[in-house]
Amino acid sequence: MSNRDLGFSPGEAVLITGAGSGIGRATALHAAEIGLSVSLWDLNPAGLEETAALVRPHGTAVHTWVADVSEDDAVTAGLADARQALGGIRYLHNNAGPASSSDLPFDRALEICVGSVRRVTEAWASTGPGEGAAMVATTSIAGNLLGTDNAWYSASKAAIMGYVRHLASYRAGEFRSNGVAPGMTDTPRLAGFAASETGRRVLQRIPLKRMATPDDIAWATLFLLSPLAGYINGVYLPVDGGWTVTQ
Ligand SMILES: NC(=O)c1ccc[n+]([C@@H]2O[C@H](COP(=O)([O-])OP(=O)(O)OC[C@H]3O[C@@H](n4cnc5c(N)ncnc54)[C@H](O)[C@@H]3O)[C@@H](O)[C@H]2O)c1
Q: Which of 23, 140, 221 gets mutated to test ligand 1 (max ligand atoms within 8 A of its CB)?
């Protein structure tokens, strides 16, 4: 166990959606590094297997589930499978979501984005995650602080935070709920963006003068899930290098 275990107990489990790449993969790696068992979910089997292979050397239990989190049956079956493999799942990282550049119809995008966060949260909550349970959703500064050209992206990220605030108000007896809002983060979906003209312009406006790494977002997420954050409920935490305070 690392000396930065954040107060988690060995063997507790976290379910991470979108674990096959980027932020979800980084959360999985650091969760395992500090002793958590992990249930890794993604619709991309190859990415998921790569993450699992990176996580396994840490020696904690690893469960994988190939699923599209916008499908009810896949989510219900995944929770049952995860519980069989790992026992109870105390923590949930709702992270999967389509890239902001995806060409999605508005209504369907909201269904996929905020609908999936609700679907996975309700399925997980129904298993009774127990004392100290917590959920973090990956939102975006594009939801509540900046507007993007894709209407569905800003709208769905803001909706996710609205749902988190509902949970924080009405479900705190079951679990804490918080939102992590990444700024521009160096994951495959933003490959090449920092070097583009727009990317360079944005970087100039970020006080820390760099993109976030997936690790930056993962640690913020793990902190909010952890017992150290036991009195933090309903916050929207931008992890953006100060970008939005300069706007
Ligand atoms: N990269 C950024 O700059 C940035 C900024 C703000 C917010 N975010 C948010 O962070 C989260 C993770 O993004 P990332 O940058 O790590 O992207 P990524 O593309 O590296 O990883 C996302 C993973 O989620 C999976 N996924 C997508 N839809 C899914 C679904 N319906 N069911 C199961 N798995 C699914 C993908 O297969 C992929 O492996 C997303 O919610 C994204 O909106 C990213």
A: 23
Helices (H), 96-213: 106-125, 141-144, 151-170, 197-205
Domains of the chain (ranges plus CATH)? 13-238 (3.40.50.720)
Q: Note the pLDDT of residue 1.
A: 44
What backbone phi and psi angles, to 5 degrees, belong to 204?
-60, -30
For ligand 1, whether the C-beta of 179 sits within 6 Å is no
- Three-class SS state of 189: helix
Q: Tell me if 140 CB under 6 Å of ligand 1.
A: yes
What is the tens place of the pLDDT at every residue in 140-191? Answer: 999 999 999 899 999 999 999 999 999 999 999 999 999 999 999 999 988 8
Q: Tell me the pLDDT tens digit for each residue of 27-80.
A: 999 999 999 999 999 999 999 999 999 999 999 999 999 999 999 999 999 999
Which residue, by CA, sits nearest to atom 10 of ligand 1? 138
Contacts of 213 (CB under 8 A, 6+ apart): 26, 185, 186
What pTM does this model have? 0.98
Q: Ligand 1 within 6 A of 216 CB?
A: no
State the Cα–Cα distance between residues 247 and 243, nearest whole angstrom.
7
Active site residue 153: yes
Determine whether the shortest distance from the Cβ of 94 to ligand 1 is under 6 A. no
pLDDT above 90 covers a percentage of the chain that reads 91
Q: How far is the CA of 100 from the centre of ligand 1 (A)?
A: 9
Q: Which residues contact 119 (CB under 8 A, 6 or more apart)?
A: 69, 70, 72, 75
